[in-house]
Amino acid sequence: MLISFEDFQANLSEVKGQIEAACRAAGRDPSSVQLLPVTKNHPVDVARYAWEAGLRAVGENRVQEALGKMGDVDPELRWELIGPLQSNKAKKVAESFHRVQTVERAKIAKALDRYAGEAGRSLSVLLQVNAGRDPAKSGVELEEAPALLEAALGCPNLRVDGLMTIAPLSDDPEVARRTFASLRECRDSLSDSFGVELAELSMGMSGDMKEAISEGSTMVRVGTALYGQRNYAG
């Protein structure tokens, strides 16, 4: 069932309040954390809600689902891919998305670079790191992150903005906190080694925003807390 715009606005206010509270607790400026609404498995209306509420980017997990929605929203709305990417979809992604958060292999980076170049674009990317060492999660291992960054930096049509991770599913908030701390430490090490900024740390979702913000997240990816449970039918 599609949430109403009024209910979305109420949820958005609540989520923004949680972000601000987490920032205050961490001694951070709330403007340093961007909220990325996740519209997966919801109709295109929810992407319009985000735009109407002043949010200028949304996240999608599935390439085809996002491509089917892009033509029905304001063309200035930015789309970020936050789900796994297969090489055979790299061309469409490089042509249509504004950023890819899930680059976890040099092969994917090179494919995106090639197709972005053919499209005359410079494509922003984040490198996905399995900072929680969870076998159920995607991402390069921490030890392999330097080699992946080196490969991505060698792609002239890619801009490496930073890193992304997904914490293991756990009832213990310290599991998420340790995961996010590991990603921040990985970023700091890579920044020092390669002399690049890597300003973006995309980490934290509806259930672990507080822990992510306390460990330096610059972007939280939120779906359920904004739009309710997703409709998995069909």
Summarize the topology:
Blueprint: H1 5-26, E1 34-37, H2 45-52, E2 57-60, H3 63-70, E3 78-81, H4 90-96, E4 99-103, H5 106-118, E5 123-128, H6 145-153, E6 158-164, H7 173-194, E7 200-202, H8 209-214, E8 219-222, H9 224-227
Parallel strand pairs: 1-8, 2-3, 3-4, 4-5, 5-6, 6-7
Helix pairs in contact: 4-5
Describe this structure in words.
The structure is a single chain. By secondary structure, this protein is α/β, with parallel strands linked by helices. It contains 9 helices and 8 strands. The strands form 2 sheets. Strands 2-3-4-5-6-7 form a 6-stranded parallel sheet. A two-stranded parallel sheet has the order 1-8. β5, α6 and β6 form a beta-alpha-beta unit. α4 crosses α5. The longest helix has 22 residues. The protein is globular, with a radius of gyration of 17 Å. 40% of the residues are buried. The model has no long low-confidence stretch (mean pLDDT 96).
Order of helices and strands: HEHEHEHEHEHEHEHEH
Helix percentage: 40-55%
Number of strands: 8
Specify the structural class: alpha/beta
Largest sheet: 6 strands, parallel
Distance between the termini: 13 Å
Largest sheet, spatial ordering of strands: 2-3-4-5-6-7
Task: Write down the overall mean pLDDT.
Answer: 96
Overall radius of gyration: 17 Å
Overall 3D shape = globular
